Amino acid sequence: IVMTQSPATLSVSPGERATLSCRASQSVGSNLAWYQQKPGQAPRLLIYDSSTRATGIPARFSGSGSGTEFTLTISSLQSEDFAVYYCQQYNNWPPMYTFGQGTKLDIK
Amino acid sequence: QVQLVESGGGVVQPGKSLRLSCAASGFTFSTFAMHWVRQAPGKGLEWVSVISYDGSKTYSADSVKGRFSISRDNSKNTLYLQMNSLRGDDTAVYYCARGSARIGTFDLWGQGTLVTVSS
To answer: What separation in angstroms does the CA of A79 have from each of A34, A73, A83, B63?
Structure first.
């Protein structure tokens, strides 16, 4: 399953809303996660099952979608939110998990 | 504290082998599936391999199947990745990651170890 994220880069001002998209080449149901990665750091799990926030993730992060179209929304961008975001599907069995190529969210 | 610490990375020639380790602490290692995920320089994430909590089941990406082998020693709280027949496109930071309760996702990551395959 190929995951395609858009846009590749998104420039947004602090305090504004950011909307990131992820498309799967075939249906993955709701088996979709989002990760945040800052420079020089490991990724961090934000969202799983398309819309469930992981432990400790602020409410400004929300996910939606099912099937092949998914969205990550950050409602009011904070300085610490500027990073690269990856979607990941986990619908296969046996496991053959795949990530999108990432969306870089930078400061406008 | 709860953490994963990888080691064993370095520079290796094409065709050679390398073994990575991941030491877990702060949680009951033997109850979690564990994964390896890699990231080529400046590129995205690629899932590599998974091992079940007891080591009885393993699965790998097609790109490494037959060359890489994942294993674990629950008595030592350590995960391993044996990498054979290394190629240039195996150059990456290798992360170990804990499988979360939601199977297929990764809720704890190490800091990564860099493997460079070059002559």
So the answer is: 19, 15, 10, 37
Pairing of strands B10-12, B113-117: parallel
Distance CA A97, CA B47 (A): 6
CA distance A42 to chain B (A): 6
Q: How many residues does chain A have?
A: 108
Mean pLDDT taken over chain A: 96
**Which one of A37, A54, A91 has the shortest CB-CB distance to B107?**
A54
Which of chain A's residues have a Cβ under 8 Å away from the Cβ of B61?
Answer: 96
pLDDT at B119 over 90: yes
CA–CA gap between residue B113 and residue B111 (Å, rounded):
7
A79 phi, psi to nearest 5 deg: -60, -35
Q: For residue B37, what are its two tokens?
A: 């995920």
Test B45 with A44 for CB contact under 8 angstroms: no
Q: Which of B62, B100, B109 sits opposite A43 (nearest CB)?
A: B109
Backbone angles phi and psi of B63, in degrees to 5: -65, -20
Tokens 């979709």 found at: A32
- pLDDT per residue as tens digits for the range A40-66: 999 999 999 999 999 999 999 999 999
